[in-house]
Specification:
single chain, mainly alpha, 0% strand, 17 helices, 2 domains
Length: 483
C-alpha cells in the first residue's frame, strides 16, 4: 500500500478511528489493532511475505527472551549468532542470491571454465532490509544488556511491523520505539495537527518534487547516449532532488503518521543538501541507517581507534557495505566506495567534525565561504548519485565521461518540453527556499508557525495543496521500496 494512494487515504482514517475511539481504553487492544493494521498494510502488496515478518518476529522475540534467562557467555553468543545468521540469511537469499550466483558464474567464465546454471525467479520482499535491521538491533542490544527483553509478544510484534515505517524506515531502535508500546497513549490535538502538517510536506516532496523530477531524470538517464554533457548534468541534478524528496518524503509521512497515533519516531533527514562537507552530509542523510552502521559495525570494528590502516579499512567497510545494503548491483558498491574516498581525507585530517552546528544558524543567509562549501559538497553528491542511478558501472562511467567533455558547455536539449522542465525547476527553487527557512526545525514546514496570522498560514497550506493537485500525475512507487 502506497502512502500516496487512494487505498491509504481510506485505510488511515479507519485505523485512526478504531485506534482512538474503539480501543482507546485498552492498551493491549490498541497494540493489537496496530499489529492487524500493519499486517494489512504490508499484505496489501503481497500477503505471502507476511510469513517472513512473522518468522523474524518469533525468532527475535524468542531469542531475546532466552537471553534474559542465560548467563553463560558461550550460550549467549550462540543465541546472538543464531539471530544474526537467520535474519541476514533471509536477507541474503532474497536480495543477493542471484547477484552472487551471476558473479560466481562470470568469474569462472573469465578464467576459461564456463558454468551452466540458472538463477531463481526471486521476488524481493518490500522493506526486508529495513525490518531486518530493526529486529537485529533489538537482539544485539539485549545481548549487550543495553535493553531489557520484552515479555509482551504483541508489543514486540507491533514494534517490528509498525506500519508507518515498516517499508522504508526510519529504522527504529528498540530502545526508542518499543517502550512506547508499553505506555498508554493520550490523544493530543496539537501533536496530531503537527503530524498532519508533516504528512502534507512529505506528500509535497513526493508528488510535486520527486515524481516530476523522475520524469525528466528517467528520460535523460535512459537515453544518455543521445544527450550532451550539459543535459546529463541536468539529469543528474533532477535525480539528486528526486531521491532526496522521494525518500525523505516517505520519512516525513511515516513520522507524521506515527504522531497521529501518539508515537515519536527519530528524525531521518536533517536537510543534507545544506551540508558543508561530506562528513556533515552523512550525519544528515538517512540518519537511522548511518547511525545503525556506526553503532553495530564501525564501532565494533574499533572505529578510528586502531591506527591509520584500521581506520581506512573501517571507513571503506562501512561505506561499501552501506552501498551494498541498497541493492545487489556493482553500481551501489561503486557509489559507496566513492563516498568513502570523499570522506576519508576529512577523517584522516581530523576535520570530519568541524561542521556540527546548523549552517548559518540564526541567520537568513550563509556566508560566502559557507555557500561555496555547500556548492562543492552538493556537486560531489550529484556526481556520486550518477553511480547510484546508472544501470551498471559502464553506464555510469560513460555518463560521467560525457559530462566532462566539450558538450558540457552546450545548451541543454531534451525530448521533454522546456516549459515542463522550467515548471519543475521553479517548484524545486520554491522547495529549496522553504527547506532553507525551516532548516533549524525537525522538518521544513513546521517553520510555517512563524506566520502569526491564521490567514497567512492557511493561505500557505492552500498553496501547498494546490501545487500537489496541479502536479499530481501517475501514482509512483517510492524508490526505497526496492531496498
Amino acid at each position: 500500500m502506497l502512502f500516496n494512494s487512494i487505498d491509504f487515504a481510506i485505510f488511515l482514517p479507519i485505523v485512526f478511528f478504531l485506534y482512538w475511539f474503539v480501543t482507546n481504553k485498552n492498551l493491549k487492544l490498541q497494540n493489537f489493532i496496530i499489529v492487524v493494521a500493519s499486517y494489512t498494510f504490508y499484505g496489501w502488496w503481497d500477503w505471502r511475505f507476511l510469513s517472513l515478518i512473522l518468522f523474524s518476529t518469533i525468532i527475535d522475540y524468542s531469542i531475546g527472551y532466552k537471553l534474559s534467562k542465560v548467563e553463560n557467555t558461550s550460550k549467549r553468543k550462540t543465541l546472538l549468532w543464531t539471530s544474526i545468521l537467520v535474519n541476514l540469511g533471509l536477507l541474503g537469499f532474497f536480495k543477493y542470491y542471484n547477484f552472487f550466483l551471476e558473479n560466481f558464474v562470470n568469474a569462472f567464465s573469465f578464467f576459461g571454465t564456463p558454468i551452466n546454471t540458472q538463477g531463481l525467479n526471486i521476488i524481493l520482499p518490500v522493506g526486508i532490509s529495513f525490518y531486518t535491521f530493526q529486529t537485529l538491533s533489538y537482539t544485539i542490544d539485549v545481548y549487550k544488556r543495553k535493553l531489557e527483553p520484552t515479555k509482551d509478544f504483541i508489543s514486540f510484534a507491533a514494534f517490528v511491523s509498525f506500519f508507518p515505517q515498516l517499508v522504508a524506515g526510519p529504522i527504529e531502535r528498540a530502545k526508542n520505539l518499543l517502550p512506547q508500546f508499553y505506555k498508554k497513549r493520550i490523544f493530543k490535538y496539537d501533536k496530531a495537527v503537527d503530524g498532519l502538517r508533516q504528512i502534507l510536506w512529505g506528500l509535497f516532496k513526493k508528488i510535486v518534487i520527486a515524481d516530476n523530477s523522475a520524469q525528466i531524470a528517467n528520460e535523460i538517464f535512459n537515453n544518455s547516449d543521445n544527450y550532451s554533457g550539459s543535459t546529463l548534468v541536468l539529469g543528474a541534478v533532477f535525480f539528486t532532488f528526486q531521491i532526496y524528496c522521494d525518500f525523505s518524503g516517505y520519512s516525513d509521512i511515516a513520522i507524521g503518521t506515527s504522531r497521529l497515533f501518539g508515537f515519536n519516531l527519530k528524525q531521518n533527514f536533517a536537510f543534507p543538501y545544506f551540508s558543508r562537507d561530506i562528513a556533515e552530509f552523512w550525519r544528515r542523510w538517512h540518519i537511522s541507517l548511518s547511525t545503525w552502521f556506526r553503532d553495530y559495525l564501525y564501532i565494533p570494528l574499533r572505529g578510528s581507534r586502531g591506527g591509520i590502516w584500521i581506520t581506512v579499512r573501517n571507513i571503506f567497510a562501512i561505506f561499501i557495505i552501506s552501498g551494498f545494503w541498497h541493492g545487489a548491483n556493482w553500481t551501489f558498491i561503486a557509489w559507496g566506495t566513492l563516498n568513502a574516498l570523499y570522506f576519508l581525507p576529512l577523517l584522516l585530517l581530523k576535520r570530519n567534525r568541524i561542521n556540527i552546528d546548523i549552517v548559518a544558524k540564526n541567520k537568513i543567509l550563509p556566508t560566502f565561504r559557507e555557500f561555496c562549501q555547500m556548492g562543492f559538497t552538493f556537486s560531489l553528491t550529484v556526481l556520486a548519485w550518477i553511480f547510484f542511478r546508472a544501470e551498471n558501472v559502464s553506464h555510469a562511467l560513460s555518463y560521467v565521461s560525457t559530462i566532462f567533455s566539450e558538450s558540457l558547455f552546450s545548451i541543454p536539449k531534451m525530448e521533454i518540453s522546456r516549459f515542463y522542465t522550467l515548471q519543475v525547476l521553479l517548484v524545486i527553487f520554491f522547495f529549496i527556499i522553504i527547506e532553507w527557512l525551516g532548516r533549524e526545525e525537525d522538518y521544513a514546514l513546521s517553520k510555517i508557525v512563524i506566520f502569526k496570522s491564521p490567514f497567512l498560514r492557511r493561505s500557505f497550506y492552500f498553496i501547498i495543496i494546490l501545487l500537489i493537485t496541479v502536479f499530481l500525475g501517475a501514482e509512483q512507487q517510492f524508490i526505497y521500496f526496492q531496498f
